[in-house]
Amino acid sequence: MNPPHHSADVRMYLVANSARIEVAGCLDNTCTLRQPQALPPCEAELVVVVIDSQERRWTVALPDGASSESDLVKIEYR
């Protein structure tokens, strides 16, 4: 029996208003940005790329936008 396949290298980012914003991680409806960045409320795409270059994308909303004062951003999956 083979062990389950998993990838140790996972990259995540948001694409919003033509900007690519690196994401450190997501839990439930909150993402932690690698660096705070100001964004108005908008729709975005959450992209997850694993080491074997497989990519998953989800359309999300940033109902409260993002603040340059905080690395946390609320998301809502569409």
Structure description:
By secondary structure, this protein is mostly beta strands. It has one domain (10-77). It has no helices and seven strands. It has strands at residues 10-16, 19-27, 30-33, 42-50, 55-62, 72-74, 76-77. A seven-stranded antiparallel β-sheet has the order 6-3-2-1-4-5-7, with no helix packed on it. A hairpin with a 4-residue loop joins β4 (42-50) and β5. The model has no long low-confidence stretch (mean pLDDT 90).
Characteristics of this structure?
mainly beta; 7 strands; globular; 78 residues
Q: What summary fits the major beta sheet?
A: 7 strands, antiparallel
Model regions low in confidence, pLDDT < 50 over at least 5 residues: none
Shape: globular
End-to-end span in angstroms? 38 Å
Number of helices: 0
Taken together, the total number of domains comes to: 1
Total number of β-strand segments? 7
Topology order in helix (H) and strand (E) letters:
EEEEEEE
Assembly category: single chain
Helix/strand class: mainly beta
- Determine the mean pLDDT: 90
Order of strands across the biggest sheet? 6-3-2-1-4-5-7
Q: Rg from C-alpha positions?
A: 13 Å
- In percent terms, what proportion of residues is strand? over 45%
Percentage of residues in helical conformation: under 10%
